[in-house]
Amino acid sequence: MTLTRRTIPGFAALFSLPLAWVLLLMVVPYAIMISVGFWTRQFPLFYPDFQFGNYAQILADPQYTTVILRTLKIAACVTVCALLLGYPLAYFLVFTVRSQKLRNLLYMSVIVPLWVSYLLRAYTWKIILGTDGALNSLLVSTGLVSAPLDIFLYNQTAMVVTLVYIFVPFMVMPLFTVLDNIPRRLIEASEDLGVGPFMTFWKVIFPLSLGGVIAGATMTFCLSFGDFVAPVLVGGPDGTMVANLLQTQFGAALNWPLGSALATLVLALVLILLQLSSRLDRAGRVDLA
Amino acid sequence: MRRLHWWQRGLVGVSLGVLAFLYLPIVMLVIFSFNDSKVTSFPLSGFTLHWYEAFLANAQMLRALANSLWVALFATALSVVIGVTAALALDRYDFPGKRLFQNVILLPLSLPGIVTGIAMLNFYKQIGIPQSLTAVVIGHATALLGVVVSQVMARLAKINRRQFEASADLGATPFETFRHVTLPGIRSAIVGSALLCFTLSFDEIPVTYFLTGREVTLPIYIYSTLRRGITPEINAIGTVIVAVSFVLIVLSVTLLRDRERS
Question: How far is CA A78 from CA A121, A216, A278, B35, in A?
Answer without folding.
Answer: 16, 12, 21, 32
